[in-house]
Amino acid sequence: MHQVKLADEIYYVGVNDRKTHLFENYWPLPHGMAYNSYLIVDEKVALMDTVERTFIDEYLSNIKNILGDRKVDYLVINHMEPDHSGAIRSIVAEYPDITLVGNKKTFPMLENFYQIKENTLEIGDGDELPLGKNTLEFYTIPMVHWPETMVSFEKTNGILFSADAFGAFGTLDGGIFDDELNLSFYEEEMMRYFTNIVGKYSPHTQRAMKKLSGLDIKMIAALHGPIWRSHTDFVLSRYDKWSSYQTEEGVVIVYGSMYGNTEKMADVIARQLAVRGVKNIRVYDASKTHQSYIISDIFKYKGFIVGSAAYNNEMFPSVEALVTKIEHMGIKEHLLGVFGSFSWNGGGVKNLMKFAENIKWDVVYEPVEEKGALKADKFQMCIDLANAMADRLNAE
């Protein structure tokens, strides 16, 4: 590969994954994934994290293309998740004298995953590791999004090696740096990455950002997605917005429908929202669209209106899975509406109201439930539900 420099003596040695369909065997990767790693070639050589184990041959080639016969002195382990630690065994085999740098929570995981416990250097908050011209300074950011996660700040050039924080889905297709890319694409994939991978730990993310706020960060080198050198304010401001649950005016409508009756109610609600001037309306069939896209939009927009057909006296399964995930993630500060239908016995709306009680969002209107096809009285209630949501959005 072409040698990509972040600064004098600091190189990108990551890889692209265009074969994996599901990240963590769950989240869709229509645009693939980049596994980033970095190499500091100074008086001492430091490797910043590794890559997923499938790419070991390519990864070692990238490193040797820069180092030749020089050895690696340090492997800094900012994050132990296997998509970044997967090549550790191979690195240790290739460079047996290497010292593994991590914090007190890193090394139990290292032993559990890879049975490695020799040649380790434990660091704490604010500790430094001089490499020559370059010096690394370490800060733990627990639960962003694993308990051992830390970042490494290279003081000479102001580069923050940020682990999974500030990452994005998507391969790096030629462009490695933010100013080489179309940021509108990466903003969408960065938000989907944050909301689904990191979003549950938003309070921890806020604490981490405050902890790092005193650093003079000139570049952010995450473990996924582009390297941010020209638009650090772009990524920092969005992480601050998303992790503090700031939303835009808009409504996500999600439904589960077998024969179209609940879907019809969703369309009536959506149309009335548009009549009332709401521009950002997203309507999703929970059985068709993967949760990751829906959750990303729920983080983005203030209103959430959810509908379910009754299914074996319960919610429709795809809706139940979605609201369970939302509840588990602890998303806050939203407006909620509930609707649904049933054929011979209820269950969908009743259980959605249990979700409403648990999530503690502000319910804007009484639940709307129809038996069979949509009729005039419940049609009007769908209109009223949309109006109530529009009124609240306008008021806020």
UniProtKB/TrEMBL annotation:
<dbReference type="GO" id="GO:0009055">
    <property type="term" value="F:electron transfer activity"/>
</dbReference>
<dbReference type="Pfam" id="PF19583">
    <property type="entry name" value="ODP"/>
</dbReference>
<dbReference type="InterPro" id="IPR036866">
    <property type="entry name" value="RibonucZ/Hydroxyglut_hydro"/>
</dbReference>
<dbReference type="InterPro" id="IPR001226">
    <property type="entry name" value="Flavodoxin_CS"/>
</dbReference>
<dbReference type="InterPro" id="IPR016440">
    <property type="entry name" value="Rubredoxin-O_OxRdtase"/>
</dbReference>
<comment type="similarity">
    <text>In the N-terminal section; belongs to the zinc metallo-hydrolase group 3 family.</text>
</comment>
<dbReference type="GO" id="GO:0010181">
    <property type="term" value="F:FMN binding"/>
</dbReference>
<dbReference type="Pfam" id="PF00258">
    <property type="entry name" value="Flavodoxin_1"/>
</dbReference>
<protein>
    <submittedName>
        <fullName>Flavodoxin</fullName>
    </submittedName>
</protein>
<feature type="domain" description="Flavodoxin-like">
    <location>
        <begin position="251"/>
        <end position="396"/>
    </location>
</feature>
<dbReference type="InterPro" id="IPR001279">
    <property type="entry name" value="Metallo-B-lactamas"/>
</dbReference>
<dbReference type="InterPro" id="IPR045761">
    <property type="entry name" value="ODP_dom"/>
</dbReference>
<dbReference type="InterPro" id="IPR029039">
    <property type="entry name" value="Flavoprotein-like_sf"/>
</dbReference>
<dbReference type="GO" id="GO:0016491">
    <property type="term" value="F:oxidoreductase activity"/>
</dbReference>
<dbReference type="InterPro" id="IPR008254">
    <property type="entry name" value="Flavodoxin/NO_synth"/>
</dbReference>
<dbReference type="GO" id="GO:0046872">
    <property type="term" value="F:metal ion binding"/>
</dbReference>
